[in-house]
What does this fold into?
Amino acid sequence: MALDPYFDPAPGGDIAFTVEAPKLKFGIGALREVGADAKALGMTRIALYTDPRVAKLEAVDTVVKAIRAAGLNVEVFDRVEVEPTDRSFKASAAFAREGGFDGYISVGGGSAMDTAKASNLYASYPADFLAYVNAPVGEARRVPGPLRPHIACPTTFGTASECTGIAIFDMLAMGAKTGIAHGALRPSLGVLDPSALMTLPAPVVAANGFDVFSHAIESLTARPYSHRMAPETPDKRPLLQGSNPYSDLACTEAIRLVGENIERAVKEPNDITAREPLMFAGMLAGIGFGNAGCHVPHAMSYAVAGLVEDYRPEGWPADHAIVPHGMSVILNAPAVFRSVASACPERHLRAAAAFGADVRNVPADRAGELLAAHVIDLMRRTDVPNGLSAVGYTEADIDALTDGAFAQQRLLVNSPRPISRDDLRGFFKDAMRYW
Ligand SMILES: [Fe+2]
It folds into this structure.
């Protein structure tokens, strides 16, 4: 494509990219319009999904009042589990089936939104639980038709669940994370109201902000869509296609907004003018990675999150060890950028420039180091742990971490260059400590 030589055709590579654009509403106070939005979508009897902590926050109260003011009925299901499981999905789907609802509203993080998606699916088209679950765990059966309308109202940012047709859960019997993925699960409308972020603790804002940053930069530096093998037939073109000119636009702006605002959003919790651009950046990056896909830092993050033994960070419930998602991603990111930048240095410089770095006269072979240095500087200024050693890992864990990350081939093939086990070993070693 003449727009950017990065997308020049490769032999056998794909010839087109698609754009899946979610329907979204963004603005301070937008939650007060949810009743009118529900009415416009034809809802009369609504199931509202939330978790016990969010249920006590102002956002749920605002939404319930807006629904009632529009003359509609609502029943609240406040038992969403924060890491949903097949058991909690089944319980919430039973609530949906028995209630005879004609519309769904979710208020909360990814867990609440994903639980509402699954409940809507099983109430609309009842089937064995495993029928719609991704293979190889489930049968990956196609959803037979459209679902009931669903309005997703995030009270956090970064997951972008309001933009996607994906519902993630833990399959308890297998101890594995899997999901249900189909375009029909995409919410009819996402309502992003930055005032809902005002209760988020500073470390959560930092972790989510860096998750957004990494979504954006991984999408920008992903293998170009034109270098992925063309699908046998057009309907087999994947949702996550590799970097493309459309996701570039959204991701470049998301990087700029995170770079400009994350420190202030972490240090000044009452300043909505810092949190508002982060929520918008999360939305943009969600649209970007929803079409392009992430790569190595996310592949590594699943191993980092899965093998944690006793790290309990401030800002999260202390009842179990956790490396929060955004943290488990960004701890790997500088090590990856340093190494894979040689595959597309101009894209790493573009990310660094969007982040505020002076890239004039920087040679191509310094692009990865420059971007990594800027990310590390921002990690330090926002009190992010100093590498994997600060969340309890040592060099003795590198083999297990490498095995976990190497299993994430779906993400690794989206890297700008092929990634071997030895590469991953090197990245984990480099990510142990940054300053
Ligand atoms: Fe992420």
